[in-house]
Write a structure and sequence with these properties.
CATH architecture of the largest domain in chain B: 3-Layer(aba) Sandwich
CATH topology of the largest domain in chain B: Rossmann fold
Shape of chain A: elongated
Radius of gyration of chain B: 18 Å
Strand content of chain A: 15-25%
Number of strands of chain B: 5
Distance between the termini of chain A: 27 Å
Structural class of chain B: alpha/beta
Oligomer: heterodimer
Order of helices and strands of chain B: HHHHEHEHEHHEHEH
Number of helices of chain B: 10
Strand order of the largest sheet of chain B: 2-1-3-4-5
CATH superfamily of the largest domain in chain B: Cobalamin-binding domain
Number of domains of chain B: 2
Number of strands of chain A: 10
Chain lengths: 244, 224
């Protein structure tokens, strides 16, 4: 197939909590509960946090940069994006097979809610702190959903489909590769910094790639091939990612 | 009467009812919680050591067992920890005076380079609820700080936490240092990327995927 004509694209957006608000059932599910069987205290605390009274604590933003030429090498297995070569591992190379372009995305919920969660724990209320922490994890995923929607709109106009989102640290892709990922983004993108140990700050941030191509499509996450039992995506399947 | 107070107190810890104003669980609404029942037990002359061992530890063990078999999840563990902490506040003077003995000292921290602390905090609370004195060094703990804490608490057990594969590797050097300077120290490791195989590889004593497993191990070595 001849290459697709895709121009450069950089997206950025800021979102209110109302826009990035996760569903109550997803907050419960990520903590391990079957929503209708969750204890009343937990449901009440989740509803309290979802009420939107913490608006000032959120600084939700996200962005993405499109790289029109990407090549997946299933034999290595690796993904080449411009001069950067990601060693993505066999699972991810398989999931990205057919990708002709790649979007690198980065989203954050900001530092406010994670500070609040830490403060609650320090004040002797680890329960509410944990729920605030879980909520922040889901808010940043919702921000990534919103960015992905914008990427999809652009891709569909070019006749392309999207793969799932994939992040360093998941599906066998080593977290150290985060350094290479950040090298493809403008400095200070979304206000997120990366430490030498590949820890993003604010902690409630998510980065990764999405493949674009004429033959790619969203797939079920290959959790059966992965041993990361604490993974957020494993806990949320299948309902949270409504487009999945 | 004291048996009844201790039973109700252990129920409050298990069910996460910290005090009388806590509206949950609904079946205990309006009734005294762990805070009030601990005070009642002391007023009734129940030895503080019995309150710890026969009520608080029992309640935390029960919720830990539920957690271990998937009948309860982290938020319920934390509700229990909050209730236990409310009761424990009344016992602290007896710990300080030496009237109540702890099972041992547990020094815990998230390793250098890692700022994640929720999991570490949960383990710290559950271990404290099991009757241990917990020295929490926080996050991004430099090796020298950890070694000082171990030196300051002879015979202590150590818990190391990491949430990233990039910081998990920092456990190896600190385990080696502790082994060299304080042979025989029990070193527990945990965190999302940590496995039993990694634990063996770096020479740590025990890996537990959940806080209850850490308590079981600590209690087994404390009694040994």
């Amino acid at each position: 197939m001849p290459p697709v004509a895709l121009g450069p694209l950089t997206l950025h957006g800021r979102y209110s909590f109302a826009e990035a608000r996760p569903r109550e059932e997803d907050v419960l599910r990520v903590m391990g509960y079957v929503p209708l069987a969750a204890p009343a205290a937990v449901v009440a605390a989740v509803r309290g946090r979802l009420g939107g009274e913490d608006e000032a604590l959120w600084a939700i933003e996200g962005g993405a940069v499109l790289f029109p030429a990407a090549a997946v090498d299933a034999a290595e297995p690796a993904l080449a994006v411009e001069e950067v070569r990601f060693e993505v591992g066999r699972t991810l190379a398989g999931q990205l097979a057919g990708a002709e372009a790649v979007v690198v995305f980065l989203c954050t919920a900001g530092p406010g809610m994670e500070r609040r969660a830490r403060q609650l724990v320090a004040e002797g209320d680890p329960f509410t702190g944990f729920i605030a922490d879980a909520l922040a994890s889901l808010v940043v995923e919702r921000a990534a959903d919103l960015i992905e929607d914008r990427v999809r709109d652009h891709a569909e106009r070019c006749g392309l489909h999207l793969t799932n989102r994939y992040s360093p640290g998941y599906c066998g892709w080593r977290v150290e590769e985060q350094q290479k990922l950040f090298s493809l983004l403008p400095p200070g993108f979304c206000g997120v910094r990366l430490s030498d140990s590949s820890l993003m700050q604010p902690i409630k941030s998510v980065s990764g790639i999405i493949g674009l191509g004429r033959t790619v499509h969203r797939r079920a996450y290959a959790c059966h091939l992965c041993d990361l039992e604490s993974c957020l995506y494993r806990r949320l399947q299948p309902v949270a990612r409504a487009d999945g | 009467m004291s048996d009844d107070i201790l039973r109700r107190l252990s129920d409050c810890v298990e069910l996460g009812k910290a005090n009388a104003t806590s509206p949950f669980p609904p079946q205990l609404k309006g009734l005294p919680g762990a805070d009030e029942l601990c005070q009642q037990a002391l007023a009734a002359g129940v030895p503080p050591g019995d309150i710890l061992e026969k009520a608080l530890v029992v309640g935390m063990r029960r919720i830990g067992e539920k957690f271990g078999c998937g009948e309860a999840f982290v938020p319920e563990m934390l509700l229990s920890a909050r209730a236990m902490t409310a009761a424990m506040a009344h016992l602290r003077p007896f710990f300080a005076s030496g009237q109540v003995k702890r099972r041992g000292v547990f020094v815990i921290g998230t390793v250098q380079g890692d700022l994640h602390d929720i999991g570490k905090n949960i383990v710290a609370m559950v271990v404290e609820g099991a009757g241990w004195e917990v020295v929490d060094l926080g996050t991004d703990v430099k090796p020298e700080r950890l070694l000082s804490a171990v030196a300051a608490h002879p015979g202590c057990a150590v818990g190391l936490s990491a949430l990233l594969t990039t910081t998990m590797v920092n456990m190896e050097a600190i385990v080696r240092e502790i082994r060299e300077r304080h042979p025989g120290t029990q070193i527990l490791v945990g965190g999302a990327p940590v496995t039993a195989e990694f634990c063996r590889k770096i020479g740590a004593s025990h890996y537990s995927p959940d806080p209850h497993g850490a308590v079981r191990y600590l209690d087994s070595v404390a009694g040994a």
